[in-house]
Amino acid sequence: MTELSNVGEEWSRIVRWLVESAPAHADALNPPASEGQIARAESVMGVSLPAELRQILKVNNGSTARSRSLTGNALHDGRGGGGYSPFPSNFLFCDVELICSLYVGNRKASMAMQEPGSRYEYWKEGWIPVFRQKEVHCGLFLDVSGGKTPAPVYEYEEESFPDLAFPSLAAYLSAVADALEGVRPFAVGGRRMPHLPTVRNGLICW
């Protein structure tokens, strides 16, 4: 199977599980991003989003929705909420507008530090933020700077250099889907969470 078909299949597994087992999380999934939204973000960022990311954005434009009445739960906020972030480490899936604003802001911060090209550059050109904790500089980005296909996934947080987490977006989504379905515990960079996720009061606990 190709990377794109793998990404689509793994994302479908996650969405299907959320709808069936944790609808409050499924309610935070946005409708698809349009080609216009993606093109505008790419123009502002000055970099193209990788095809595998574009594919899932065109299914769900992030998990940042406000309450949309599907569950009748009014606790969602504009960035998906802490408890409403369905991915491991309380990560939410960034919508294309959030991807753009984070990328631009991080690149500006990096340039202000006057460290372009350094191995320890704060945020390199081509690091596309995809998953993050709410209001915290911590998450996962796709590295398109080296031209690898598929783009590898790196884990980042404040005051530490990013570490390779997964060889591809499909690999990350597969690990999440396997954990949700009870196949195997979620692991990143060889570090395994001690147990499979559970659902309490309708919300995922990793």
How would you briefly describe this protein structure?
This protein has helices at residues 3-21, 23-26, 35-45, 51-57, 96-112, 169-180, and strands spanning 92-93, 127-132, 138-143, 153-157, 160-166, 187-188, 191-192, 198-200, 203-205. The chain has 206 residues and is α+β, with helices and mostly antiparallel strands.
List strands and helices in order, with pairings:
Elements (H helix, E strand, L loop, with lengths): L2 H19 L1 H4 L8 H11 L5 H7 L34 E2 L2 H17 L14 E6 L5 E6 L9 E5 L2 E7 L2 H12 L6 E2 L2 E2 L5 E3 L2 E3 L1
Antiparallel strand pairs: 1-2, 2-3, 3-4, 4-5, 6-7, 8-9
Strands in their spatial order, largest beta sheet: 1-2-3-4-5
Could you tell me the number of beta strands?
A: 9
Share of residues in helices: 25-40%
Alpha-carbon Rg, integer: 16 Å
The dominant shape is globular
Low-pLDDT sequence parts: 67-82
Derived structural class: alpha+beta
What is the terminal-to-terminal distance? Answer: 29 Å
**Could you tell me the mean pLDDT?**
86
Quaternary structure classification: single chain
